[in-house]
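Worked example

This section walks through a single chain of length 388. The input is the sequence exactly as stored; nothing has been trimmed or padded.
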Amino acid sequence: MRRYRLRKGRESAKIDFQLPTAKRPEGMEEPQHSSTQSYVPSDEYRPEPVAKPLLPAWMDGSVRIGIHTSIAGDITSSLEIAYQLGANALQIFSASPRMWSRGPGGSKGADAATQRFRERRNELGLGPLVVHGNYLINLASPDRVLRVRSIQAFHDELVRAVALGTDFLVAHPGSARGSHMSAAIAAIADGLKQAARGVNFEGLRILLENTAGQGTSVGSRFAEIKGILDLCGDLPVGVCIDTAHLFAAGYDLRSSEGLEGALGEIQATVGIERVFVVHVNDSKAAMASRVDRHEHIGKGKIGIDAFRRILNHRLLAGRAFILETPIDRPGDDRRNVQLLWRLAGVKLKRAVGASDGFPAARRAKRRTAKAPRRAKGKRSAKSKRHKG
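Given that input, the structure is written out below as tokens.
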């Protein structure tokens, strides 16, 4: 009896709870629910296409004439010098070329300087920016200590070049120093790959420069440079050709036939499409002398007509032409830059001045020359009035 009362009490405590149901208008069918959904192609996830990187502003198809400028004092001053000389491209060293670097930089002062450099370069519209590597680096060296030091130094060159926003880093391949040429070629390619570890290139490209053939240097023949490039894998590499080095290595650039022959060999080996920069230098040394001595444009053994053909050759269109000529007298750098523009058939749109102040000096001279003439005229007038 007691058990019956407890059960009845529990049953009476239950609450009859029901969810409200929506009333459907008469005549409407009950909606059908299904766990499967129809496939709609537009609903499929498609990742956004990777945007193509924008070309640098200097790659607008215009002729690019540059010159190697000094970084003494403030590295940003190299930009001002190039601009004042009438160049629209430039080459620099990122550190002393004849001393082992103490590292890639990275101090607060260095970071601020590189930021100023990048901003000022953008304002002046200079490009490409070419950095020339340290002369002490020899990635082909059979000496283990020198090789390790060279790899580290080249790594530092890469880091500094990226920090500056460099387009091309030019490097001499190296010197075999007793080792077989094939071994030297393999050592150079391996050294480049080791130096590049951990470096985000950000558009930077390494350019191997042809050599004059002095001693046991690698790269006086383009087949040797091709051997290095072929072993570099995915590393962004290319070629810089130097006219004085070509001439000293035996390529006769003085005639149209000689130039065609040199460019034909380049096309057949490394490929002309892998040439990005041309170092434009006349030569103090004779052809095939294997001696590297630069001279002012038109003053050396190559001659001015050869440079006119080089600057206007269809296969070299779009390349940057960079001067590495000596400065024997104040204003030599400005004269060489202006001569290249004339040989390229380009008339400068803006008046340019040299960093040494020569144009201003000439204007001042003209002003001072006019003053005595005016003074002389006044004196003669006074003399006439006195006589009258």
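What to look for: Residues 358-387 form the longest helix (30 residues).
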